């Protein structure tokens, strides 16, 4: 229960600082824009309501894969390091809270901030889609929204985990956004470079399983796989691009299967958070 107390305080602080209102505004503008784009795609390809929902999800997936991590990391990276710098962490731990209660409370409170902003923002997007199109698959859209909330939770765990390992917000910010650079820019470059070293070419006729697996490991790729699993539509996965072009041998490694996206998301959430808890329990404040 101690972690719940910390979470409630964290959430109330976010509301008082208007962080929550700002995030709701960002996600609302983001999803309304996606709804408008989906409506234009629907008109262009003359698709029906169900296809329009998929058009919207496709229009939102890639930018959400960038926006949600950035926002979740901004919310999470200063959770512990910021309070250590200000000295308020010693006061907080002077209350009947264990260190793990503080860390878990921060995760819960900041996940609530991200989740509420996503739910309200995506709700506004749904209203926009209905206004632009007139019909929408509620189940598919809500399912996508919930997977996005899970994705936000993963990055909050990463941000708070990093924050628990460092003494300053500067180092925490560098670590958090270094991960964004790694996942968004360097990972695919490293995979392509390794492909050239192993295969002797950048674009073989058939891409090996290990290459598909490596490109499916990042949290962002796992997010797409999880969406594909719940919507039964493989076009959201990283591997689908290679499958559609006939660049695979017809089978996928387990890591690239849609259902495995949830396993990867769990690993990305629990490992950084677990290591952050372990480190935070052993350092002097």
UniProtKB/TrEMBL annotation:
It comes from the Archaea. Pfam families: ABC2_membrane_2. Keywords: Membrane, Transmembrane, Transmembrane helix. The keyword NAD does not apply. The keyword Transmembrane applies. GO terms for cellular component: plasma membrane. One of its GO terms (molecular function) is ABC-type transporter activity. Coiled coil: none annotated. The chain crosses the membrane at residues 20-38, 58-80, 107-132, 138-162, 174-198, 259-278. This is ABC transporter permease. It comes from Natrinema zhouii.
